[in-house]
Amino acid sequence: MRQEESYEDGAVKGFIFSSLFWLVIGLVVGLLIAAQLFAPALNLLPWLTYGRLRPVHTNGLAFGFAVTAIIGVSYYVVQRLARAPLVFPGLARASLWLMNITVALGAASLFMGFTSSKEYAELEWPIDILVVVVWVMFAVNMVATLIKRREEQMYISLWYLLATVVVVALLYIVNNLAIPVSWFKSYSAYAGANDANVQWWYGHNAVASLFTFPILAFFYYFLPKSTNLPIYSHRLSIIAFWSLVFGYMWTGAHHLVYTPIPDWIQTMAIALSIFLIAPSWGSVINGYYTMQGSWATVQSNYLVKFFLWGITFYGLQTIQGPTQAIRWISQFVHYTDYIPGHVHMGTMGWVTMIISASFYYLVPKLYNTSLYSIKLANNHFWLVLVGQLIFSITMWITGLQQGAMLTATNEDGSLRYSFLETLVHNYPYWMMRFAGGIIYFAGIVIFVYNLAKTTANRGGREAAA
Amino acid sequence: MSIYRKPVIFIIVSLVVVLVGSVVSTFIPLFMPSMEPALEGITPYNPIELEGRDIYIREGCNNCHTQTVRPLLFETARYGEPSKLGEFVHDRPHLWGSKRTGPDLARVGGKYPDSWHYKHMENPQAMFKDSNMPPYAWLAGNRLDTSLAEKKMKTLHFPFADAEIRALDGKTEMDALVAYLQKLGRTKKPQPLAATTQGAATAVESPAVAEGHKIFDENCAGCHGADLAGGLGPNLTDAEWKFGGSDADLILSITEGRPGGMPSWKSVLDQDKTGKVVAYIRSRAKG
What we know:
Chain A is an all-alpha fold. Chain A has helices spanning 2-6, 10-36, 50-82, 89-111, 125-147, 156-176, 192-211, 213-227, 234-248, 263-275, 277-290, 297-300, 302-325, 327-333, 338-366, 374-407, 419-424, 427-455; strands at 178-182, 185-188.
């Protein structure tokens, strides 16, 4: 217990609750833009138009929620796996403040229309610099702690976290290089096709390195921790890790299939995308086999559901993604709702499930208490599961319908439907998807309430089981 | 020695591993001249087009509109010629987009007259009842901020005349945005219309006036008025025809478009639908 007390967890709490704050904000914006799709009158003011809000939603959740959560949980995990306290606890607290300032400034600047327009990299250059500073603070603290560690071997989770630090820095800096015109405006350092190619090298791999590597790190750490089951195969995780980090970086151009980008770049990206099924499923299989013979814990331990459904959605995600890269599927689904449907399964089903489970594990420990209500945690689980399924499945169906209508031709080769005719058929689905979003959001509200109550539950026992 | 015991070496090894794919797929093309080939007729943006482009970026139009036409039949039928590498050499950043909540805009330049864009952006639902495009009437009330115009052109090394910068004074943000949209995909002077009358005879015999009415309301009423009495486009009930009043002339006007603003509808309306629209117009014409 003496060991536990020497750890520096002050900043971890701050990161967790900041992350939850941005999660709620990001989802509220998400609900609004989901409604704007079928109710254009909701574009009330210039800074509340869909075009400005969509980056607020994506950046708010990617940076405000996910990156904040990743940094916070990593500070916790790294100390335990190093069996050493953070080397610079003051730096960790400073990075918490700077992270929140950066996200707030970022959101405000996007509302005001200051954007580079490159997806998930919309923030203008002064805010990009702040993001890089936060990231360097995180990296320095983490690597220094690992250098001073007392545990000889670095566990799998640490490999994924180190890869995250390296890859995010590389992608973010290269893609955001720009020539400033003023404090609020810059032009990309790359032109046309190269700009698109760099952008999607970033766009796809930022997803890999923020929504895959650290989330797998947490999966590999918290699943054994909360079940007392060892990871099934160390060897499998080594093979999966190296082939995943090697394979990902080639695949960005599968976002550019049938664009003017040269065919060899597209084909390479498609081939490596399909290759990635193997290492992705390496982790899925490792997760399932870890549970082998212990499936009954799903009933006794509420956290196991989150991990197993999370890794299952990861498995589905990493099958669906590569299929979308294939040319004849891409031509049908690209540019339709099918693709954001795919993204939302990953973010709502995989990333948020695992981060939620990590928070459920951490918050009672950090406040030296027990969870306020397991019943509420179960309610949270079912609501986000159902909400997410309605959300993503509805979007896949919309996408398939759009694909079918937009590609339909008459016998004489003319198009069967005008664009507007295809659009009106989306409305019922967009409403259904909004309803799914509301259900999901209700689950998240319960989640945040449960954790907030837990902090006030000091020294208490779990009230209702 | 195991790299799983040496964090710094582990970082270096993983950096090398991720750089392999990055260098081949992304960094090498940056230095390949074939990624930015010269293409005849492709010119940089002039000051007002560049300001318009920056407004397009500011308002996040790229979140719903793409700017690349894929080399697929159903795609070229809807949007025109496939996009080519050389068309984008002046685009910093690129605006290819990733989602078509609205149609592709790579070749929207010249498709409609300026007045169509002003009217459409002011209130898209007045033109197309079922559209979900947000209204942008307020752009027409915002004076264009020209303080950085010259610096922007110099930063991008685009040629410009001082008169072009001075001409920006008094323009609205809407003026700039429309100027930009009209530039998109326009590489050469518009081709003169070829006179053909193909497909006229069979199509006009369709009596489905009611269906023609529906098609007209969805596609044509925005400019010609729901009562056909005109608006942006001419009155269709007064028996005056600028380009000839025969069935063949009307079909030609609809399928191929006419100078002065009438866009070509052949990608949207097949022969059958065009015939029904003509039948509907005839049913409403006076005399």
